[in-house]
Amino acid sequence: MRPDRRTFGQEETVRPAPERMLLPTVREVLRMDPMADALPEVLTGEGALDTLVRWVHVAETADVARLVSGGELLLATGLGWPRDARALRALGRDLAEAEIAGLVLELGDRTPQAPTPLVEEFRAAGLPFVVLHREARFVAVTEAVHARIIDDQTVALRARDEIRELFTGLSLRGSPADFIVAQAARVLGCPVVLEDTGHQVLVAENVGDGEAELDRWEQRSRAAHRGTGEPGWTLTPVAARGMRWGHLVALPGEPHPAGRSSVLEQAAVALALSRLADRDEEEWTRRSHDALLGALLGRRFAGDGGMAARFEASGFPVAERVLAGVAVRTRSGRVEAGAAARALEAARAAGSEAIAAPHPAAPGLLVVAVSSRHGRPGADAVADALAGGDAAVVGVGSDAHGIPGLLGSVEEAVELTGRGGGSRGRHAVVQRAESRPLLRLVTAFGDDPRLQEYAERMLRPLIEYDLANDGDLIEVLRAYLSHPGNRTRAAVASHLSRSVFYQRIGLIEDLLGLDLDDGETIGALHAAVLARRVRR
Fold first, then answer.
1. pLDDT value at position 534?
2. Is 286 left (phi over 0), alpha (psi -120 to 50) or beta?
3. pLDDT score at 515
4. Are the C-beta atoms of residues 106 and 136 closer than 8 Å to each other?
5. In this structure, are residues 135 and 75 in contact, taking their beta carbons and an 8 Å threshold?
6. Which of 163, 264, 424, 524 is the most exposed place for a label (fewest CB within 10 A)?
7. Per-residue pLDDT tens for 430-445?
């Protein structure tokens, strides 16, 4: 049976079915001591033994069907049943139409075997028909089942109170969306996703590396909303004041005493209140972009496939796309409020997709990942859009493919923003990776441990000196290498007087035992400095 659905405007939303943890199944009832002691035998409906039992009734009359409302497990001795085949078949059809959970018949002297016509009707309907080969105390059976149902309902009520208290507290504390979703995932012990109305993932918690859970997310989510998707998904809308912002989706997992749908509903209320309090239409998208780029730059992912699935699920295509990184360093040292939105709009206007967020380790640096169908119109459009205003330097990484390529391109763009002091005019200096062949070479091999070992070996004396003396020799060397042959500009870039700068250069030469006027030495040190920076 397909799930019931309700329609809101043009969107169809699945209404969750009742959750099984609140009620026992026919199979579980048959395993209870008062029933198991009577040696039950299942004659029909083996495939329906997991049907939920809403209540248990002793029913001996032929018109019992009109007295039930569905979901009951009926207990009988057959004393009040009709004896002719036609009446027995009619009784079977009536009980099937009443949607009972099953029928249990105690065999005895007056009913030594199950009536064949009645059994045939139950078999045709796929309903459980069970016979007991020993005498059963029906009172004990009903007491055991009803106690189980009432106990489960008490546990459920207590659990719902705890869940309501948890998410009410999160609402009162103004907890952000990602933390609320994380709490829902923790409580349910399964992956939980917050998606927008376009089925793009905003927050995903407890998804492991994300490759399996988020793969082809939009297609799978749309199927789940239609009621034709994978089993075990629980969906709850996030809405308030007539405005729907998205859905919470719990992937398959163990039942929860409060009910999976109840947990999601409370989390959805907390999310809606958080959204109303923020009054920021882009808050969820911004947090999503922060998390994605933070994970990419921090290398907080187990595999390329899982990271690609995260980006794809968030509306950033990776497969068969040209990817590039763009970075902007501002004059003021902080990212303008509308800079990220401007970058996204420029990418969309160029037919590309983008994700933008401040660099997690540099507040004055905006990082943008761009996905284009071909060529680099998206990256160029983003660079042009961000080159004005407070921007000092815009770095544009090289074209790339896949997650490793995107990471390298973003790191190129970040490194390029540190070159030069930037323009003093209205537009920023735009640095492109094509003009920095050594940078492209280093980022192409940035994950090779041999390159990192080389950088460590070349720079170890300076690193150890800086750590021991709170020094700045690595940064002075970087400024020197960025302006080869022009020590005056290098001194300005390092924010030191010329005399102090020359002293630092002399100390660097002494510690390394190298001549910084030698071209090959400069090239080797430049590669080491770049390798160290792109990995930090």
1. 61
2. alpha
3. 86
4. yes
5. no
6. 424
7. 888 777 777 667 766 7
What gap in Å lies between CA 269 and CA 261, rounded to an integer?
12
SS (H, E, C) 487-522: HHHHHHHCCCCHHHHHHHHHHHHHHHCCCCCCHHHH
Q: pLDDT tier at 376 (50, 70, 90 boundaries)?
A: low
Residues 6+ away with beta carbon under 8 Å from 88: 81, 82, 115, 117, 118, 121
Q: What is the Cα–Cα distance from 536 to 263, expressed in whole angstroms?
A: 40
Quote the CA–CA distance of 369 and 391 in Å, as a whole number. 17
Q: What is the pLDDT of residue 101?
A: 93
Q: 122, 46 in Cβ contact below 8 A?
A: no
Instruction: Work out the average pLDDT over 291-299.
Output: 91
Q: What is the 3-state secondary structure (H, E, C) of 119-143?
A: HHHHHHHCCCEEEECCCCCHHHHHH
Mean pLDDT, residues 188-214 taken together = 92
Pick from 340, 423, 341, 352: nearest CA to 388: 423
Q: Is the pTM of this model over 0.70?
A: no
Whats the size of the chain, residue-wise? 536
Beta strands in 46-179 (DSSP E): 55-58, 72-76, 102-106, 129-132
> DSSP code of 52?
B
Distance CA 184, CA 512 (A): 55
Residue 18 is predicted with a pLDDT of 43
Amino acid in the structure at residue 327? A
Residue 179: CB atoms within 10 Å: 16
pLDDT at 296: 92
Answer yes or no: are the C-beta atoms of 397 and 433 closer than 8 Å: yes
State the average pLDDT over residues 440-469.
80
Per the prediction, the chain carries an average pLDDT of: 86
Provide the Cα torsion 265, 271, 277, 283; round to 10°.
-160
Cα–Cα dist 453/445, whole Å: 12
pLDDT digits (tens, 9 = 90+) for 482-505: 777 788 888 887 888 888 888 988
Residue with tokens 């969107």: 11
Report pLDDT for 419. Answer: 59
- Could you tell me if 329 and 364 are in contact, meaning their C-beta atoms sit under 8 angstroms apart? yes
